[in-house]
Specification:
Length: about 325
């Protein structure tokens, strides 16, 4: 299994073979997680520190569970009460972490590039759990695994990503991954929630849901990220739902076997109708949550293998 990276900071540096390696190993971990005894030993003896500078439920719990199931010592740092609030810089935090000798560092940060900066300063493997509007690589990977298992492949599919594209790191990571795996991507949303120069990504852009959803295989809805908005991007939530919320009438334009996705948390009645979200024949939203644990187990396993190999080489060279 080929995966030579020291960190997982984004989808952009990954080759299609890297993506496939993570997904193939994650498939094995899906099977492990469905057993009565769900523990492996890939991270035995290693320390995992989770640093979430932004609140998170799914991602933090998923990384914590993934690490514990693989045998790591897992520590969650309460960043809202950390020395960062007292004026400590990110570089000083990195130096403090180095003194603790962690092996895996999982970081979510509100500023794009902050996780990359930490990765340059610490002596361990770093996983990006979301940085600003930049990337959220494990979300894109778990989405990819969900699609591959539901559709039987991860190439030459028509995928619609709908909603708040401009503020979404999930959208950016998925755009990169789906493009690398030779899929046709459509972006659907109001012009106020589309990034400038978005067509340079080689995607189709629509501001009409019915037109954009026609004959797609995958419908990926996004949350309205009101916490990242500093102005009036939509007239009202009611108007937004009327035009861009996914309901049965709009979904009928997609293929009959199209799957519905959402990274969560969902705003029911704003981005998606509750009945669609709960439809076991179309919605794979709960599958995404399950795949998240398996993907994060796979990513940490592969990074840990590389970390141990580098340390063994360094030890042999002494």
């Amino acid at each position: 299994m080929t995966f030579s990276h020291s960190h997982l900071l984004g989808i952009e540096p990954l080759a299609p073979a890297d993506i496939t390696a993570i997904l193939d190993l994650a498939d094995d971990y899906v099977a492990l997680n469905r057993r009565d005894v769900k523990h492996g030993d890939a991270l035995d003896g290693l320390t995992q520190i989770n640093m979430f500078f932004e609140n998170s439920t799914r991602t933090q719990a998923s990384f914590e569970l993934a690490g514990k199931r693989l045998g790591a010592d897992v520590m969650n740092m309460a960043m809202q009460a950390s020395s960062i609030k007292k004026g400590e810089t990110l570089i000083d935090t990195a130096m403090t972490l180095n003194a603790m000798h962690p092996d895996l560092l999982v970081v979510r940060h509100p500023h794009s590039g902050a996780v990359d900066l930490l990765a340059q300063k610490v002596r361990c493997a770093v996983l990006n759990a979301g940085d600003g509007r930049h990337e959220h690589p494990t979300q894109a990977l778990l989405d990819a695994l969900t699609i591959r298992r539901a559709k039987g492949r991860l190439h030459r599919l028509n995928v619609a990503i709908c909603g708040d594209i401009a503020h979404s790191r999930v959208a950016r990571s998925n755009l990169l991954l789906l493009g690398k795996m030779e899929n046709r991507v459509r972006l659907i949303g109001p012009p106020t929630l589309m990034p400038a120069q978005i067509r340079e990504f080689g995607v189709e852009v629509y501001d009409d849901m019915r037109e954009g959803l026609k004959d797609v295989d995958v419908v990926m809805m996004l949350r309205l990220q009101k916490e990242r908005m500093d102005g009036g991007f939509i007239p009202s939530e009611r108007e937004y739902y009327h035009r861009y919320g996914l309901d049965g009438e709009k979904l009928a334009y997609a293929r009959e076997d199209a799957i519905v996705m959402h990274p969560g948390p969902m705003n029911r009645g704003v981005e998606i109708d509750g009945e669609i979200a709960d439809d076991i024949n179309r919605s794979v939203i709960q599958d995404q949550v399950e795949m998240g644990v398996a993907v994060r187990m796979a990513a940490m396993d592969l990074l840990a293998r590389n970390l141990r190999a580098r340390r063994a080489e360094a030890g042999a060279a002494i």
